Amino acid sequence: MRGNYYYVTETYVEEVDGEEIVREREVREIEWFPVFGNVVNNFRNMIVGASKSLQPDTLKKLGSWDFSKLVNYDERYISGFRSETYQMSPQDALEVAKNSMGPVINQTIMRDIGGDEQQIGSTTTELDNIGIKYVLLPIWISSYVYKNKTYQFAINGYTGQVSGKRPWSTGKIIGLIVVILIILALIFFMVSKH
Questions:
Q1: Within 13 A of 8's CA, how many CA atoms are on the CB side?
Q2: Which residues of the chain have pLDDT under 50?
Q3: What gap in Å lies between CA 20 and CA 45, rounded to an integer?
């Protein structure tokens, strides 16, 4: 449904100092129209992490990959390194990919509907020309233990982008906030004194 805004003038009574005054205001209304149609999205080189060692959000934060530079697998590339084989079936990977396609498809539909507001009652998605590539990405994964908690980080071997989690010191954060508040209080005191 496409919703288009329109405005109507509404009269109302307001009491001011014991006196009733008639006033007008503009009220926004929405007129809904049924719509239907087809949209097309092209998805290429969607990355679905098939490793259970790397968190999905860490993989997303590692940045982009230049798939035009892919080469056929050669054992010599990983000689001396430990590597993982995929730990997800192609069917499960396709489901993960579909879930990440959903919001993009809905945005395309809403843009196609137009208007000021949109409501999507139902959609049907057809996938065409589905392909899968097993790609060994150059990602270095490591972790460290700090105060009995393990923190993982990963490095994109193509761009050098680093992603991961790190410990936060609650005491240092609170200390910083207190210092900032003291500085602000001193500035306020000095400004109000002059």
A1: 6
A2: none
A3: 67
